[in-house]
Amino acid sequence: MPVLVRMTISGRGCDGVKYSYYPGCSLCSTASEYNLSSEAICARLGIELQEIPDWNCCGATSAHSASAYLSVALPLRNLILAESMGLDMVVPCAACYHWQRVAHREVVEGTPVGRKANEELTEVMGRGYKGTLQIKHIMEVILQQQVLDLLPEKVVTPLAGLKLAAYYGCLMLRPAEVVAFDDPEQPQSIDNLAKALGAETVRWSAKVDCCGGSFTLAESGVVGKLTADIVSAARRGGAAAIVTACPLCQANLDTRQKENEVQMPVFYITELVGVALGMPEARRWFRKHIVDPVPLLEELGLL
Predict the structure, then answer these.
(1) CATH of 8-138, one of 1.20.1050.140, 3.50.50.60, 3.40.630.40, 3.40.50.1820
(2) Which of 178, 263, 265, 273 has its CA 20 to 30 A from that of 153?
(3) What φ, ψ does residue 137 adopt, rounded to 5°?
(4) Partners of 51 in the beta sheet?
(5) Which burial class, exposed, middle or buried, applies to 200 when counting CB atoms under 10 A from its CB (0-12, 13-18, 19+)?
(6) Distance of CA 42 to the CA centre of its chain
(7) What is the mean pLDDT of each run of 10 residues along the chain (303 residues)?
């Protein structure tokens, strides 16, 4: 049976809610603002994140192209560590979430690579993976009804007037049979959370298009074209900013607008939750953004 987390509501937050937390490599480097905002809003909402001790890189952007075995074994080690904590796992990074879910499926379904990786890690670590974890993207945690019920009393700065293009990218919801907690073609989870915070989301054509991911160095021209198309589609839809839940997507969209006459801020959804919750540290998160979102937020009276 999967590990179940019991949630109760109080005036302060969700008492007794604990998850093992896998930040992954990007959130400890280029996407540190995603990590900081994720931890901060969960703490404000009473959700306790316990970082997995001695976690390792899951190989998200490259292992699968070099070795099918490593693409399972690397995330599987993290699953074993999390399972030993007795807590379901929360993963903010779309790519990390994708590959942790893939490894879980390989073991649970008993595929040859899943069996081999689990057997060898059992020998090395002294325990294998039993498949009891629920592996959740942070969006799944925030959008639980118990958490949504808290938002009206927690929001101090509704995001009124902020028009957003909710961008999901490729990995968070595909392939549907492995990772999707939302419709892979017409997802609404980021839209719904943004609306719950008081923002408006636009209808647009590129919400699940690929941004080029980790090809940003190897095929920079291709990535430049893909990201330019996405930003243009958001602008045509009437958005003032883009909001996402993937560090690769945010980095590609945020860093490739230098030639644009009018640049569009690219937020992490957790940053906007922090703004709505009135968290003053949000200004520090925005210092790492290439396209400065502060002027837009100040213009709308949100900072």
Answers:
(1) 1.20.1050.140
(2) 265
(3) -75, 150
(4) 21
(5) middle
(6) 13
(7) 34 69 95 97 96 95 81 97 98 95 97 98 98 96 92 95 96 86 93 97 96 77 92 97 96 85 91 98 95 97 96
